[in-house]
Every structure is written in structure tokens, then in C-alpha cells.
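Quick one from the shared queue. A colleague (R.T.) flagged Odorant receptor as missing a structural entry in our internal table.

Convert sequence to C-alpha cells.
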Amino acid sequence: MDFIGEQYYNLNRILLVCVGLWPFIGTVIGMGIIILSSLSFILDAIIPLNESQPLWLPVIVEYFVDQERYFFAILIHTFMFAYAGCITIAAIATMLIAYVLHNCAIFEIASYRIEHIFDENILQMSKDIRQHILYERLIHAVYLHRRAVDLANILTNSFATLYFILLTFGVASTSFSVFHFFYVLTPVNDVFEVIATNIFILLHLYYIYIGNYVGQSVIDTSTNIFRTTYNTGWYAAPLWLQKVMLFIMQRSSIKSTLTAGGLFDASLEGFAKLMSLSISYVMFMRSTRSQQENTQEEL
């Protein structure tokens, strides 16, 4: 079982590093955006022109102040707000990923114990010793399986509301980002805006995919117990143990999932549904905007 723990330890470390890089990536992207936004001031200092250069803000927000006078204050405030958001999301995601992968490791250990219940050397022992060893191994396997199921339920009850809010925010933000991408792509007048929008879309897709990937891992490891139990040599076991194995297969046939708000199961299929939903929202917003433009032209 050491290789199971090492496998999930390495996977956990990789995912935590990938998610933990969000604040660093956000810092680099933020510094790049600040430099791009300040490019007009830099060019005016190097090559002064008779006409004023337009100012570019990555996010259009109404601060009810003179944006040209307080340009750098608004830019730094926007950067700090985005950086704090990245740190918050990374902290929640790393904690959730660690718990979920721990749950997956328990499921895998339970599968390993069930797989090695019917060893050939045990079946060759005397009846009393064989029955005692089979009892012990079966108890340990069922205990681990119950712990894994209970932990999956605890994670669902603890993070369901928060996970649902993050997914709702991610779908809405992705839809608006894609809609904005089509909006700035049509005239292709602002290259910086197109690049920034692409980066935002990729970051949204990345964090939504990670959330659904760990949910798919829980589903795969929980249903793997049913396949492992069915592929064991249960037919060579005593009759009482065969009856008990039927109960194990019946319970393990019910997959454990991370459910968000009682409506959405985190999985790769759910990721595809979310992307389809986002594209549907984008198409709806584009059609609504086209109708408004046509109405204004007619008037």
C-alpha cells in the first residue's frame, strides 16, 4: 500500500504546486498589465508627441473621480483587488484538493485490501485460521470503505455551498469574458485587450477544470471498489463470505460524488456541461446585442 500513498502524494504535490502558482502568475500578469497600461507615459517620456496618448485600464470601473489624474491609484487598486482574489481562490482550492485526494487514497487502499482478501496461501490454511484471517481482512476493508464514504459526504456538506458559488461565479465570469473577447476581436483595434481577455479565459477554464478533475477522481476511485470486488476470487470463498461480498458490491455500486448545492456533480462530464452552458450564454448575449443594434439602426 506504500505505492498508493506515494502515488497520491505526488499527485497532490503536483496539483497543489499548479494551484499555488496562481498568486505568482497573477503577480507576473498584473505587473505586465501595469507596464502595458503605463506604456503611454513611458513613450511620452522617451518620445514626446504633440498629442496625448490614450489611457488603457484592464478593467473598466467607475470610481467617480478623474481617471486621468488618479490613473496609477486606480491601476494599483485594481491589481491589489485581483491579487487578493487569486490568493483567496488558491487557498480554498489547495485545501479542497488536499482533502479530496486524501479521500481518493482511502478508496484506493480499501480496493487494495479487498483485492488481497483471497490470497492463495490463505485459502490453503485450516478452516478456523482461514475464517479468522478472512474476518480480519474483511473488517479492515469495510471499515476503510465506510471511512471514505463518510469523508466524501462530509466534504460535500462542508464545501457544497462554497463550491456552488465558485462554479456559478466561474461560469458567469467565463461567459462574460468570452463575450468580451468576441466584442474586442471584431474590430481588432486593441491588441492588448485581446491578449488580456485570452489570459482571463484560460485562467477561468483552468480553475474550473481542476475543480471538476478532482471530483472525477472521487467518482473513479469509489466505483473502482465495485470492479475490484467483482474481479476477486469470491467464488472460491466460503458461502458466508460470498453473501457478505454481495453487500459490499451493492454499496460500492453507488458512486460517491462531490455535489455542489445539491444540483451539480463535479466530474469531467460536468465540466463539459459547464462549458456548453457558458457558450449558450455567450450566444444568447450576442444575439440580444445584435437585436439591439438592429433596432437602433432602424430607429
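The beta strands are 259-260, 264-265.
The chain has eight helices and two strands.
Added to the table.
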